[in-house]
Write a structure and sequence with these properties.
223 residues; alpha+beta; 3 domains; four-stranded mixed β-sheet; 8 helices; 10% strand; elongated; Helix-turn-helix domain-containing protein; InsJ-like_HTH; Homeodomain-like_sf
């Protein structure tokens, strides 16, 4: 129950009490003005819906588009919208002596039902971009990155060597295996895969190889 409905039902209780005990007594007991109680009693028809607040929006406005201007907008819309859009519609209206602003034209077109909004479909919370993997080893992701120079320590830092880190992650269990080599070569990729097959406790079915250098390696050839 929203707050508007609650207020209407509260007014209904006040009106019922006023009909039994009197309007002045209802005003005193519920702490509302006597004029409000009288107005609600006059408005009440036996249902709480009759006590809902009425819209205070004016029915007309002195600056509203005239029937002639609305007819001009509709004709220009049929003539130009499909090819030129609303800019073309407004240009055509200006040539015919239309004096309103662009935003005023759009507001009038909305009221006339010419502007239609497309409803956007809400994405389901269960929607997944990639299917969830439930079997260990179904897909193992492999990546190779160069170790940053400022991360090197000791002898490697003094000799100015480069190190490359091979990383393998199982997309189901998130189990990870990491090893480093001094050179980034296909031979080292093959060595890494052989070590990986020994370290992982489950059978690997498929590799998802990110780097182009290791993309030619076949798991059957490694075995």
């Amino acid at each position: 129950m929203n707050i508007i409905t609650q207020e209407a039902k509260k007014k209904q209780a006040i009106v019922k009490y006023a009909l039994r005990k009197g309007k002045s007594e209802a005003s005193r007991v519920y702490g509302v003005s006597l004029s409000s109680v009288k107005r609600w009693c006059k408005q009440y028809d036996g249902t709480w819906q009759s006590l809902l607040p009425k819209s205070r929006r004016p029915h007309s406005h002195p600056n509203r588009h005239t029937k002639r201007e609305e007819r001009q907008i509709r004709n220009s819309f049929k003539k130009c919208y499909e090819r030129y859009g609303w800019d073309g519609v407004y240009s055509d209206l200006k040539r015919k002596g239309y004096t309103r602003s662009y935003s005023g034209m759009i507001y009038a077109a909305k009221r006339m039902g010419l502007v239609k909004y497309k409803k956007t479909k809400k994405k389901s919370r269960n929607h997944r971009r990639y299917p969830e993997l439930l079997i260990p080893g179904e897909k193992v992701q492999i990546d190779v990155k160069e170790v940053p120079y400022n991360c090197l320590r000791g002898k490697a830092l003094r000799d100015g060597k480069h190190f490359y880190q091979w990383t393998a992650i199982d997309e189901c269990t998130r189990m990870r295996f990491v090893y480093g080599f001094e050179e980034h070569t296909p031979e080292n990729s093959t060595k890494f895969l052989k070590m990986l097959l020994k370290e992982f406790p489950f059978k690997i079915k498929r590799f998802k190889q990110i780097t182009e250098e290791s993309s030619h390696i076949n798991i059957k050839a490694v075995k």
